[in-house]
Protein: G domain-containing protein
Organism: Hyaloscypha hepaticicola
Amino acid sequence: MCGLFSKKEKVEPKYLIALIGMTGAGKSTFISKASGRKDIQISNSSSSCTKDIQAVSFKYKGSQVTLIDTPGFDDTNRSDAEILQTIALFLSGSAEAGLPLTGVIFLQSVLTIRMQGSEKTRIRLIEKILGEDAFPNLVLATTQWSHLKNPKEGDALVEERSSQDDFWGYMIKHGARLAKHDNTKSSALKIVGSIIDNHKEPVPLQMQKELAMNDFKVILTSAGKIADAALGESATEFEKRLQQLKRTTSGHAVNAVDQDEVDDIQENLKETAAAKEKLRNARVTPEQVHDWAKTFAQVVEIGLTAAKVIACAVC
C-alpha cells in the first residue's frame, strides 16, 4: 500500500487543471491560495521542492476542482529529461484514468527580466507538450508582482514576451490568454474561474497523443526531441569552450583559475552526457501507467493532497 486514505464524502470530479512552469514561479503557492490549504509543500528558494506530482482538490462554486502541480523545469536537482518522464507518466496515466485536463496554467515570475536561450527552449518544450489545439485552454499567468519596486518592469516583461513568437506570442495568437496573479486567493480563483468559464471540451495534449503513438518513449515525442537537441547544443558549447581554453593555455603552465574552469566544463560535459542517456532511455511502461492511473483516480475522487502517494506510483 502506498498510503492510507481517510473516508470522505466522494465528489464527482469535474475540473482538472495542471500548473506548469519553471522552478520558483510559484505553482505550489498558487495552489495553496486557490484551495485555502495550508499544508501544501512550498519552495521559498531556487531549489526545487516539488519532486513529483502534487494534486489538491477543493470546492469552487459547487463543483470540484483539482489543481495538479507538475515538476518545474530548470530544476536544480533533476534534468529536463527526468522531468519530461514524470510529466509523460502523469499525462499517460490521467488519459488512461479517463480524467482529461480542463485546462493548463503556465506560471511565469515577473522577476525574470532578461530573456535567455534556456527560457526559449523551455517555452518550446511547453508548446510541444500541449500542442496548438490546447492553447485556447491555456492561461499565461504572471506572478511575484509584489516583489517589484517598479510595476512597469513587469509590464515591460509581459509586453516583450507577448509580442515575440519565440516566447509567448505564438501561443497567444492561437488562443492562450494572459492573466496577472497578485498572490491572493481571489486572484487565484479568478484565473481558475476563467479556465472553467472558457472551457468547451477537453483536448488531448500533443504529448499524450505522441506517447501513445511511439511506444511511450519520451525521446520520440516532439518535446523529447527538443530536449535532446538542447542537450546536444549545450554539449557543443562546452566542447568549444574547452578547446578555447586548451589553445589559450597551450605551451605554458595552467593556472589555478583556468584549471578550475576546465574541471567545471568537464563536469558539465559528463552531466550533459548522462542527461542525454536518461532521455534516450526514458519510457513509461504500461504497468506504470496503469498503477499511476489507479492512484490518481483515487486521489481525485477523494480530494486529498497526493504528492507522496503518487510518488510511489512513479518509482
Summary: Residues 141 and 179 are 5 Å apart (CA to CA).
